[in-house]
Amino acid sequence: MENYGKKHGFTIIKKRLLRHDDQSIKHRGFGCEFGGRHKPKKGVDINEHRDRKSKRQECPWKANFNCPKNSNNITLTTFNNCHNHVLLSNTEEYSTKYRCIPEDVLKEIQFFTENGNLPISIQRKLLKARFPTSSILDCDLTNAIQKFKVKPDEVHDASNLLKTLIQNKSNDPRWFCRVST
Ligand SMILES: [Zn+2]
Question: How much distance in Å is there from the Cα of 32 to the middle of ligand 1?
């Protein structure tokens, strides 16, 4: 879920948690960091606290999951995919998301991905050979590869990508695209 939020330009916070008798998770709710109601403290000088502006502005985004007892099935019970604020731009997302990968390594990943479309297994080997001192987590590498695979403007608007795919499909019957949710 955290990754989902990052990808879509907001931060997910964990909300309600209920457990079964055996301590396994029964219910878990997630919300947007801008969710909830901002309660200003009474009698506080507004000027003094201006820069500590609360993030809470009742953003309605939420996702709730239920897990029945003795079952591995997780059900998405509520999903409200709406925000009442601007989502982070790609540049902000980019800078925080890849802080853990050094700039020169990142450039290399970009090169491998854009020019060779190399899979993660090969990139890992090449990067290890090239930068023996730095260790890169697989998840970070995957994220970085994904990032360079898709053009930034398409990441920003995933429906563009979908449109292109559908267009390709109608132009050429050999094309197929499947939408998985
Ligand atoms: Zn939100």
Answer: 5
Cβ density class 82-105: b for 16+ within 10 Å, e for less: ebeeeebeeeebbeebbeebeeeb
Looking at the DSSP assignment, which residues form a beta bridge with residue 17?
A: 28
pLDDT of residue 154 exceeding 50, the answer is no
What's residue 90's pLDDT?
Answer: 52
Tens digits of residue pLDDT in 62-99: 999 988 887 777 888 888 888 888 876 554 444 455 55
Give the H or E element holding residue 14: strand 12-19
In the chain, the amino acid numbered 150 is V
Cα 85 to averaged position of ligand 1 atoms, centre (Å): 6
Whole-number Å distance, alpha carbon 97 to ligand 1 midpoint, is: 18
Separation of 10 CA from ligand 1 center, angstroms?
7
Are the CB atoms for 97 and 145 separated by under 8 Å?
A: no
State how beta strands 75-80 and 25-32 pair: unpaired
Q: How close is the Cα of 51 to the center of ligand 1, in Å?
A: 20
CA of 82 to the centre of ligand 1 (A): 7
